[in-house]
Amino acid sequence: MQQPLLYDVVKLLVTVGSQAPFLYEINALCSLEYGQPLPGDFPKWLNIYDLRDFLSYVGSKIFPKVQDEEVISKQPFPRSHGAYWTNAKTWEAIFARLP
Length: 99
Fold this sequence. Notes:
Elements: H1 6-9, E1 12-16, H2 20-25, E2 44-49, E3 66-70, H3 79-82, H4 88-97
Parallel strand pairs: 1-2, 2-3
């Protein structure tokens, strides 16, 4: 029996305050070396970031499939890294993209 493609199982990847784009750029991801594109069956990717969160990174400049959404928490770091979950814009961005 053939395994289903990732895209068939996962319809939307949501990252919030993610370091994945940065880790990719410094070649620190063991499953995807710098310079390699995302797999063809990679799902839609919503990346939510806050410019005040020093641990969050923009992904669309690194991976063309990423849809970045900026939220503004008005919180200083490190509070900004946990403030996504009480920010209405975070939930609006997620709910608008759910299949």
